[in-house]
Amino acid sequence: MLVAPLFVRPGSGVREPVASMPGVERLSADLAAEEAVRLAGLGVGGVILFGLPETKDALGSGASDDDGIVQDAFRRIRALELPLATIADTCLCEYTDHGHCGPLAHDGSVDNDAALERLAEVAVSQARAGADIVAPSAMMDGQVAAIRAALDDEGFGQTAILAYASKHASAFYGPFREAADSAPAFGDRRGYQMDPANGREALREMELDVAEGADMLLVKPALPALDLLAAARARFDVPIAAYQVSGEFAMIAAAAGRGWLDGRRAMTEAVTAIVRAGAGIVITYAAADLATWLREEQ
Ligand code: PBG
Question: Is the CB of 93 under 6 A from ligand 1?
Fold first, then answer.
């Protein structure tokens, strides 16, 4: 059930801690592959890769570069034939110089339809490099249908889509944006991510994504959206995933670091609640710890 996020950066033999997420590191592709071996050995079921490219531009060109950083890491991990699902975060914000999830229109807003074309190219490139599953997270309207069509056209009918369907414009992504250097240069993501106050919109987004061909649905963040996880589980007959995001991890890690919480118990309780609410797959920065603790308890 557990999926570990990996931040892949250029170079080789490079390991760089993320200040706001104790224990989380940015890794070069060679070390990311080593980490995948360790995770598979612990019983973690999958890895989701985020790329930190050397250069960024207005279109986020690096995201669909067959020789890009994430593509390199996928090829290395696939070559190891590990019992581990390889998942790609399909977005542009880590690759655009403005930090938004799609190319910009003249008025500075994100151009939804231009983004669809780019996201389809990104997904195809990730599938070609060895991603079993692509996970579109840009929250552009129609992204699942556009990606499904492009994958099918290019002969990747077997590549599954894990749709970030219910994704709130959340304060809890803060540490991730430090890790991925992807904070928007201006404005915010409220134009395309959802208002946390609107639960019905979340369910409508999920319905649309299923209709467009999503194989699995993702709810994000997790603990602040347990109601939506439970509703999604009751309503849709596809696997439901939850993303316990960077801020959810950082809160527990920071309090545990000060001795204010028992980190192991708090993390276990939070992830148990996420599973109880309906998640069959949990993306979490604590995946390795949780897998280790589960083994100790067996
Ligand atoms: C890319 C993306 C983000 C996260 C996952 N994919 C950042 C964002 O939307 O701002 C956040 C994950 C986390 O906080 O751990 N769009």
Answer: yes
pLDDT for 10 equals: 96
Backbone dihedral angles phi then psi of residue 115, each to the nearest 5 degrees: -65, -40
Question: Is 242 close to ligand 1, i.e. is its CB under 6 Å away?
Answer: no
80: how many CB neighbours lie within 10 A of its CB? Answer: 12
Peptide bond into 22 cis (omega under 30): no
Tokens for 124, please give them: 């195809």
Query: By C-alpha distance, which of 284, 153, 147 is closest to 209?
Result: 147
Active-site residue flag, 56: no
Nearest alpha carbon, ligand 1 atom 11? 173
Token pair, residue 194, equals 């959802």
For ligand 1, what atom is nearest to the CA of residue 89? 6
**Each residue of 65-111: pLDDT tens digit?**
999 999 999 999 999 999 999 999 999 999 999 999 999 999 999 99
Task: Write out the H or E segment, with its range, that includes residue 276.
Answer: helix 263-277
Our measurement of the distance from residue 51's CA atom to the centroid of its chain's CA atoms, rounded to an integer in Å, reads: 11
Q: How far apart are CA 28 and CA 113, in angstroms?
A: 33
Q: Which of 176, 190, 218, 251 to mutate to test the pocket of ligand 1 (most atoms within 8 A of CB)?
A: 176
Q: Ligand 1 center to residue 207 CA distance, Å?
A: 21
Task: Kindly name the residue from 167, 168, 189, 233 that is annotated as catalytic.
Answer: 167
pLDDT tens for 230-262 read 999 999 999 999 999 999 999 999 999 999 999
CA–centroid distance, residue 18 to ligand 1 (Å): 15
Structure tokens at 158: 């077997």
Answer yes or no: pTM beyond 0.90. yes
Instruction: Set out the domains of the chain in order of their start, with CATH numbers.
Output: 2-221 (3.20.20.70)
